[in-house]
């Protein structure tokens, strides 16, 4: 009679990254890490240079970039705290 092609099973579902639920911040208890809060040796990675170590200039450039990132994060956290205070006043 009729020749039907074999049915292809559907592809498996795409695994999605699990996003942690947003936790409420406790206002008034915001502590930020200072320079001593990070262990500088724990995050070392290999380098493509021949000696396998970063040069002083490279380290200074990385330190400068990290300082800029930290300033931006601190600024964003301050802005977020202001927004949360405004929202709590309105509620």
UniProtKB/TrEMBL annotation:
Recorded coiled-coil stretches: 59-86
Entry GO terms, CC: nucleus; ribonucleoprotein complex
InterPro entries xrefs: RRM_HNRPC/RALY_subfam
GO molecular function, one term: RNA binding
Region (Disordered) residue spans: 1-56
Biased composition regions of type Low complexity, renumbered to the chain: 40-51
Keywords: Coiled coil, Ribonucleoprotein, RNA-binding
Protein name per Swiss-Prot or TrEMBL: Heterogeneous nuclear ribonucleoproteins C1/C2
Organism: Dipodomys ordii
Originating gene: LOC106002799
